[in-house]
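Standup notes
- DV: blocked on the single-chain target, sequence here:
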Amino acid sequence: MSYHPNELLRRARLARALLMLSFTVLGGAFFRTQVLQNAQYTLQSENNRLREVPLPGARAIIYDRKGEIIAENLPGYSVSILSPTEDSLRSALTTLGKVIPIDQAQQELAVRRFRRAPQRPAVIFNDASFQVVSVLEERRVEFPGLIIQSSPKRYYPDGAAMAALVGYTGEISEAQLALPRYDGYKAGQQIGRQGLEQQYEALLRGKEGRRFVEVDARNRVVRDNGVRPEEQPEAPPPLRTNLDLDLQRFIHEYFGDSLRGGVVAMDPQTGGVLAMYSAPTYDINRFIGGVPVKYYQSLLDDPHTPLFNRALKGTYAPASTWKLATAIIGLQRGLVTMDTHMPQACTGSYYYGRVFKCWDKNGHGDISLAQAIAKSCDVYFYQLGLKIGLRNLIAGGVSLGFRDSTRIDLPDEKRPRWPESVKYFDAKYGPRGWNASVVLSLSIGQADNAQTPLTMARFYSALATDGAAPTPQIVAQPVERTQIVNLPPDKLQGLQLALADVVTRGTAAGAQIQGLTIAGKTGTAQNPPHPDNAWFVGYAPADKPQIVVAVILEEGLHGTAAAKIATKLMERFLKKKLTLVAVTND
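- DV (later): unblocked, structure below
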């Protein structure tokens, strides 16, 4: 086939145009790739050969009121491994398990960490021992994806003494990563669990740094240093608390291994918590880096429940420590004065449909309200409760805050139990299943009344001062006080004098401390089928209170046992404080 010369010329021109267009497109593409998108592709190339290794940030140090360390960070080691796939990770873990002990649970945990963040090293040990690190360092060439680095380890110098307060740290879970409060957290990072560590996580959390390692196509580390400048981790400023570590240690030593109960000590003016203790206790240092299964199971199986925080969550019938509330309600309603006597003298019992006994079977005779507080006369308060009436007694307890949590700056505070109205008894016993005799039990702090040591410490802080209850606070904050005891100064002073009589010549006389005036109230709470619980709540010095202490002693038999503990704590705190002042003045 032959073409006309003009047709050949046209086709040649078309071919040249197509060729020029192709070169133009290719040139543009090369220009875009080599010039315009050079940084993007360079970064992508680097990302393909570089792996980010997180550098954990140290958590803030926690101090007590005098600058003693409650929580700090010690040097530790973490062991992790880079792997391209889950299968290769499992293979590496199996091989690694022939060199160091790695149980099946640890292997599965490392795999789960890999699934959550495959681009980050899968952590095998958060807190590796020096022995494990030494073995791995000697054989590092056998595990090219292995990363061993220093990592701050949380440590509590007084772990067992502080368990009820400080909490501990642990690895963030998948469920927590989905919560808004943990926005910005990454898999494998440590967070606060329980206590101060959880409450102040936002202030305690360190800023994570990062370094980079160069890897090959199989994620094997080929260069460990100098790949890219490191971003150093940062530790936040320290957290300072109202706690008195010396007092906390003293309580821990006093309770030893035999006593069970809870203690709260606080400043009645500011609400600053000086100490909070629960016995039996446990060592929270054992929880760092993952609590050993056997140890944790032993705590769960212990019949004395060391994991239960009695100071924050334990609710107990307050017994005679609650009689001050009955007295306040009667005084507020103008039904009695401090000198009022009841119609029936105490002979050791009181009859109201059945016999209600007084704790002293010999009776207290014909006494005033002030004397009834000092001697803790049940018969007097039975009659005062009847004068007040059930509805008024319930309403008075509500207004005094016995249904409310204290709003302390700790997580998981247990709310106390107190009837909201008479409907409570209708729901519990049926509309006709109860009678007015329930007021007798309520008036002496028994039956449907369960308070925490923290609740009682707050209430007695109001009694010790001007009737305003402070909000308990571990970390110093603006003071919040709520007026709950609405009495004229002379009547409030009358109650305070009666509380001082409890310790000088009443039920707590055996707990006096020479040279120290103490005010407070004992309580012996029925605890069927177990022996009675022992209470004491009080403050010192009686004329100018600086410390309020609430003690609950499980199966302590009588309030005097708790009183002896409480007054010893007051003595320790106040004498130590006076010594410090004297040294400062010199």
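- Follow-up: Residues 39-47, 580-586 have pLDDT under 50 and may be disordered.
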